[in-house]
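Run: sequence + zinc ion -> complex structure.
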Amino acid sequence: MKVLGIETSCDETAVAIVEDGRKVLVNNIISQIELHKEFGGVKPSVAKYAHEEVIDDLILKTLSDARLKMNDMDLIAVTVGPGLVISLLVGFKKAKELAIKYDKKLVGVNHLLGHICSNYLESDLEPPFICLLASGGHTQIINVKSYTDYEIIGSTLDDACGEAFDKIGRLLGLPYPGGPNLEKLAENGNLRAFMLPEGKVNPFDFSFSGLKTAVLRLVQKSGDNYNRADLAASFQENVTNTLVKKITFAAKETGNKKIVIAGGVTANKTLRRKFKEVSDLETYMPDLKYCTDNAAMIAGAGYFLRDINQPVETMDVFAKDPSCIRLKTLSKSSL
Ligand code: KG4
Ligand code: ZN
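>> structure
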């Protein structure tokens, strides 16, 4: 089954074609990073216009790269949230238009679910497993019971992990996006140079605000008199240790043997190395090109959600729960 995936939730316009949820035929992405750099973050109106400018051509190019036509597609999958609404609408309207014109089934995909499904691409991973999702907007531990049954068992109480990377990156004077630039700076730093605090919350949840404040105080206290690379390395060490510790704990508590990571932060090489070193559990992570936002993960998710009925006419990115799959919140006591 061939699925055309469309993703425009933030600052990447992405279109892909994936077969049976795993085989990526084409994965095209146009990044807007250069356009947003001068604002130090994503400017929604700029993102919207940039998506609109390229989406039609990118769909045509993707079909042509695969030597396929719209009529060869079995369904269309599109991100319906969470994300910037005016950006999401660009992809959503286009997907709806194509679904009606070519009489194709349309599947609305929750972006976070897409990140989880990035782990099925070019892989033989099967549920059940525990997934750590660490992106720019979310940090969650999710109990993935089947391809369509997900429960959030832990979340951040304040900043998302990628957001913390981005804010500390800005504090260190790095360009947007902070995460990959901070990783580069940390390469020559001493990860033991600064003792930074760990968020004090229950073992399933996350908190990065205390860490962020500690780094801010350090910078304010030292003026220009500190080694930026050392601070970047110490921060990265602290965050990656916390992430690995929490997912390992969650797997043991829930009796899961497989652990999986997903989302933009999982492009971080220190995190990938530490995660791979976990013993006693099977570890899976997406290929680097599927960690940050892409449409292959959305097309893949569309395949796994294909049997859930959601009429095109009623689909809407403004709906309270736009995705056909809810990520349910499970109280800790019911574990
Ligand atoms: O999943 P994603 O591409 O978009 C969202 O859904 O939010 O994640 C973007 C986040 C940004 O905060 C970015 O700084 C972070 O992922 N990120 C990284 C790295 N690459 C991207 N954080 C740490 N190290 C990286 N190499
Ligand atoms: Zn994302």
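>> summary
The radius of gyration is 20 Å. Residues 111, 115, 135, 264, 293 surround zinc ion (ligand 2) (CB under 6 Å).
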